[in-house]
Amino acid sequence: SYNTSHFLLCSEVRDQQPFLCSPPQTFDKILIANRGEIACRVMKTCHKMGIQTVAVHSDVDASAVHVKMANEAVCVGPAPTSKSYLNMDAIMDAVRATGAQAVRRYGNFIVYLLFCYTYALQAMGDKIESKLIAKAATVNTIPGYDGVVKTVEEAVKISQDIGYPVMIKASAGGGGKGMRIAWNDEETREGFRFSSQEAASSFGDDRLLIEKFIDNPRHIEIQVLADKHGNALWLNERECSIQRRNQKVVEEAPSTFLDAATRRAMGEQAVQLAKAVQYSSAGTVEFLVDSNKNFYFLEMNTRLQVEHPITECITGLDLVEQMIRVAKGYKLQHKQEDIPINGWAIESRVYAEDPYKSFGLPSIGRLSRYQEPLNLSNVRVDSGIQEGSDISIYYDPMISKLVTYGATRAEALASMEDALDNYVIRGVTHNISLLREIITHPRFISGDISTNFLPEVYPDGFKGHQLEADSRRELLAAAAALHITAQLRSQRVLGDLSHWELCVELEEGRHHVDVTKSGKVYTVEMDGVKVEVDGQWNLASPLLPLAINGTHRMLQCLSRDASGKIVLQYLGTSFKVRVLSKLAAQLNSYMPEKVPEDTSSLLRSPMPGAVVTVSVKPGDSVAEGQEICVIEAMKMQNSLTAARQAKVKSVHCKPGETVGEGDLLVELE
Questions:
Q1: Start and end of every Biotin carboxylation domain (predicted)?
Q2: What does the alpha-carbon distance between residue 210 and residue 148 come to, in Å, rounded to a whole number?
């Protein structure tokens, strides 16, 4: 028998497997007007189907993975998306120059000879119109104002009429951009300003709508697939409630929350909407679901969603292949009763972000070392980068989509934990620590989640893994054993080579440990407790597989130096440790402590980005919480405020400038 789920899970296997029968005659050549992981994902299926591919790229993406994967590549402009990937004239020139018969654009395949925006794309791309159509199709909708909100004062009046809280969002938006929650009039004014600016920047359309915000809901979406012959299917649901700033972080299929009746009702309404707009492709109908399983239409995405792999895993369907078949005019191959739920799949979005800042502010840099955990079973990684790739301020900071699959949810979660521990990413700050904490949290494991999961679980912000007594001892013992291994390797240790007295510093604590070695096993004693550490001790490898008191742990040594400083990734989180000999620790106690910089008078950029506005000048007085400037990163605008009441001493930035993380923006007296 042929395992279709495995076919879709393992990229190496997928690329090598032939079709079970001859591939259908579709297109000879497709131009893919996307970049990054989704462009690579589409190319894999195209190549499997015998279709030639054309990549488009900006000048800074000339060496990108999707460019190398394609049969042909065309440069369509400079780095900013508005001048390259969203430059329709340049893309159409590329279509004509290469002779492509179809274009993958906005997540769909459009036949070149009929290149236009269909009614479905127009209608569902506009949140105002889509809501009206959904109502007409008897799809449950959220109460709100159905027209365009034109002014700040109109926004306040509408919000008051609807009743707080409200959601202000871009009519043409998506991906969490141009969305703000407002709980009062002042937040409505601020939300209107930022949402309209983000909408104009991201979509070239600053129209906004306002609707009732459903507090503490789940975000559950239905995958639909429709053809040009009036056939449509729903391919089960995806649970997408783990979010930050209205952007998804972890998704799974199916949902732990839905029963068969609710799943069917949501699926049928999703199909009703797809048929109402004569949609023909793969698409997603998103719903908010309250604690009583009441569900409300949120939006329809007329494209292949980021999280589509988990649907592929549990159904065995290649959604890209289905989209290409539909674009060519074929009827759907399946009926509703053919669509299964086989097993469980989980997707973690791996981003170049600092999770300690608002659950993830963008990071930039070059991937100095990169190793995906594809050596593990039931792991799929959809990425568009490789070792040496640059993560820039111009594009989405996603590194990859890490997907794991299992016969049960517990199996999928266990595989995800292993995959995150084995994922090697160097050169950029990443969110592995946050992802691992989410999928191992008791609330997530039990399925007790909502879109408020992150702020509820981490009300003071994400702080990384919090060590308990046992895990602290494990980390200290691993650091001590690694330090001695490195010392022995460099032959700098004299005297007894089987017993050492060390001092290990972790956070604010200093721990005295005794270490003995027998073969490759270290016994580390601290505070009267012994910890055994056994491992391969390959110091050249980025991965450090250890058995600590018989429990398998995968650590990563991120850095170490001659002064005994070691940075270890343990249980997903990076910890700074310092290991000293007993004598060195005694002498170190006489060293003067470095006085930390007073940062209360300095406003530094928390992320790389572009300065949008500066609201102050030297000599101005500012109140605590007053906006000083706005930084845009990855199309998201962030308001930076004064930490205290003060007078502005100097301003070191101006609108339009590019700033790096930590750059000084404004100095206060």
A1: 26-459
A2: 8
Is 397 in contact with 36 (CB distance < 8 Å)? no
H/E segment holding residue 111:
strand 108-111
Identify whether the C-beta of residue 650 lies closer than 8 Å to the C-beta of residue 666.
yes
271: left (phi over 0), alpha (psi -120 to 50) or beta: alpha
Round the average pLDDT of the chain to a whole number and report it: 89
Closest CA to 176 of 158, 145, 157, 203: 203
CA distances from 514 to 478, 483, 485, 502 (A): 13, 13, 15, 6
d(CA 42, CA 177): 24
pLDDT at residue number 311: 97
Rounded to two decimals, the pTM is 0.85
Task: Give the type of residue at 384.
Answer: G
Residue with tokens 């306002």: 210
Active site positions, annotated: 299
Segment 24-80, tens digit of pLDDT: 688 999 999 999 999 999 999 999 999 999 999 999 999 999 999 999 999 999 998
pLDDT at 361: 87
Question: What b/e string do you get for 200-217 counting C-beta neighbours within 10 Å, with b at 16 or more?
Answer: ebbbebbbbbbbbbbeeb
Token digits of residue 525: 């004693």
Strands 602-604 and 424-426: unpaired
Distances (CA, A) of 68 to 39, 48, 71, 189, 385: 11, 16, 8, 46, 11
Beta strands, E only, 227-275? 232-244, 247-253
C-alpha 560, offset from chain centre:
29
- Pairwise CA distance, residues 644 & 601, whole Å: 8
223-247: b (≥16 Cβ within 10 Å) or e: bbbbbbeebbbbbbbbbbbbbbbbb
The answer to whether the beta carbons of residues 403 and 345 sit under 8 Å apart is yes
What are the tens digits of pLDDT across the range 250-273?
999 999 999 999 999 999 999 999
Q: What is the pLDDT of residue 117?
A: 40
Instruction: Give the span between the Cα atoms of 279 and 173, in whole angstroms.
Output: 19
Residue 67 CA to residue 567 CA, distance in Å, equals: 35
- Cα(81)–Cα(635) distance, rounded to whole angstroms? 10
- β-partners of residue 383 are 400
71 C-beta neighbours (distance < 10 Å), count = 14
Count the alpha carbons within 13 Å of 224 in the hemisphere toward its beta carbon.
30
CA-nearest of 236, 185, 192, 242 to 218 is: 242
Evaluate if residue 226 carries a pLDDT over 50: yes
Q: Is 143 exposed, middle or buried (0-12, 13-18, 19+ CB in 10 A)?
A: exposed
CB 631 within 8 A of CB 638: yes
Please report how the helices 409-422 and 432-440 are oriented relative to each other, as an axis angle in degrees rounded to 10: 150
Measured between alpha carbons, how far is 552 from 546 in angstroms, rounded to an integer? 6
pLDDT in tens, 345-368: 999 999 999 999 989 888 889 999
CA 468, distance to chain mean position in Å, is: 28
Specify the pLDDT at position 6.
37
- The span from the CA of 382 to the CA of 402, in Å, is 7
Residues 155 and 167: their CA atoms lie apart, in Å, by 11
What does the DSSP 8-state code read for residue 388?
T
Q: Which of 79, 80, 113, 83 is nearest to 96 (CA)?
A: 113
Q: Are 228 and 327 in contact (CB under 8 A)?
A: no
Look at residue 647 and tell me whether its pLDDT is greater than 70: yes
CA-closest candidate to residue 566, choices 475, 462, 494? 475
